[in-house]
């Protein structure tokens, strides 16, 4: 049984995790999967196994003083080999690829404008507005989700619905916020898709392929110290893996030398609260990995 302090108890309560509970011990547990849009079940492995990182049982909130104020160099010692198939999405035609290549040179403002005016896929016809992201571009933490839902499409901001509220509570525990107050550290939140799929259906491979350069450029410009990939579409895009979340979590992966922690999508956690305890362990690993990246 964990020895947790009152702050941690409050966080667990905020995440809806009942106390007391046992710390999970199996790193690659089988989970009960749903067939719904955010089901965290996938089919084929495409990335080599990464070395399991030490999992702390009591993650420390990230302190502002512990984090440098400038973006430092990326950790390089523990980079895992690139997957054989770096992208799990449908390849673009030559013409499409050329038209997307200019994105890699864009400034932040140019990128924001390009996303807001994007017509590269059919989702532009049904969106209210494109949802670029939220947070400070200087953030050292980045969260990657799937796609805007109905609320996000209306408000123009990622994760503003129920899943977003859970995400915010989880981030609060790490002393992170999209709009930081006092000693909180900024986090940047973005999605794989910038436009809402109709009826919140799953992103299609062609849509992910068209939208991926935007996320790639966001990451290049932000240069976060750590990325949390929430759900299988974030994992597919960042790691090129179709492996199940339950098999990828508990390890430190990398996207272009940036540590990536895989965790369940908050919407999945709302439907499967029993897995919140695993998400808590993922937060522990994220905090630990972030601290190590500062060394
Ligand atoms: N789910 C996501 O993945 N992103 C959002 O912005 C909202 C819900």
TrEMBL record:
UniProt keywords, alphabetically: 4Fe-4S, DNA damage, DNA repair, Hydrolase, Iron, Iron-sulfur, Metal-binding
Residues annotated as domain Uracil-DNA glycosylase-like: 132-284
Pfam families in the cross-refs: UDG (PF03167)
Position of the signal peptide: none
GO biological process terms, semicolon-separated: DNA repair
Known catalytic reactions: Hydrolyzes single-stranded DNA or mismatched double-stranded DNA and polynucleotides, releasing free uracil
Feature: compositional bias, Low complexity: 44-79
Domain of life: Bacteria
GO MF annotation list: 4 iron, 4 sulfur cluster binding; metal ion binding; uracil DNA N-glycosylase activity
SMART domains the record matches: UDG, UreE_C
Region described as Disordered: spans on this chain: 23-102
Main enzyme class: hydrolase
Record keyword Iron-sulfur present: yes
Entry's transmembrane regions: none
Listed EC numbers: 3.2.2.27
Stated family: Belongs to the uracil-DNA glycosylase (UDG) superfamily. Type 4 (UDGa) family.
PANTHER family tied to this protein: TYPE-4 URACIL-DNA GLYCOSYLASE, TYPE-5 URACIL-DNA GLYCOSYLASE
Protein name stated in the entry: Type-4 uracil-DNA glycosylase
Organism: Saezia sanguinis
């Amino acid at each position: 049984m964990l020895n947790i302090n009152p702050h941690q108890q409050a966080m667990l309560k905020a995440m809806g995790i009942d106390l007391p509970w046992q710390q999970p011990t199996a790193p690659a547990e089988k989970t009960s999967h749903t067939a719904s849009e955010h089901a965290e079940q996938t089919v084929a492995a495409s990335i080599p196994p990464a070395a399991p990182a030490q999992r702390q049982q009591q993650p420390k909130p990230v302190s502002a003083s512990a984090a440098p104020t400038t973006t430092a160099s990326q950790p390089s010692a523990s980079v895992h080999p690139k997957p054989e198939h770096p992208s799990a999405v449908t390849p673009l035609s030559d013409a499409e690829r050329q038209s997307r290549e200019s994105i890699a040179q864009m400034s932040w403002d140019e990128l924001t404008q390009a996303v807001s005016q994007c017509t590269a896929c059919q989702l532009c016809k049904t969106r209210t507005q494109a949802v670029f992201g939220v947070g400070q571009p200087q953030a050292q933490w980045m969260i990657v989700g799937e796609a805007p839902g109905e609320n996000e499409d209306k408000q123009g901001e990622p994760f503003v619905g129920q899943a977003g509220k859970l995400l915010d509570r989880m981030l609060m525990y790490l002393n992170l916020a999209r709009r930081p107050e006092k000693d909180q550290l900024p986090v940047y939140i973005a999605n794989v898709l910038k436009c809402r799929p109709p009826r919140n259906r799953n992103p299609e491979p062609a849509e992910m392929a068209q939208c991926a350069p935007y996320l790639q450029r966001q990451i290049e410009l932000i240069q976060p110290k750590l990325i949390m990939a929430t759900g299988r579409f974030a994992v597919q895009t960042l790691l090129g893996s179709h492996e199940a979340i339950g098999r990828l979590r508990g390890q430190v992966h990398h996207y272009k030398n940036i540590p990536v922690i895989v965790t369940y999508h908050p919407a999945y956690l709302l439907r499967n609260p029993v897995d919140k305890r695993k998400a808590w362990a993922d937060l522990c690993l994220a905090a630990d990995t972030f601290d190590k990246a500062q060394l």
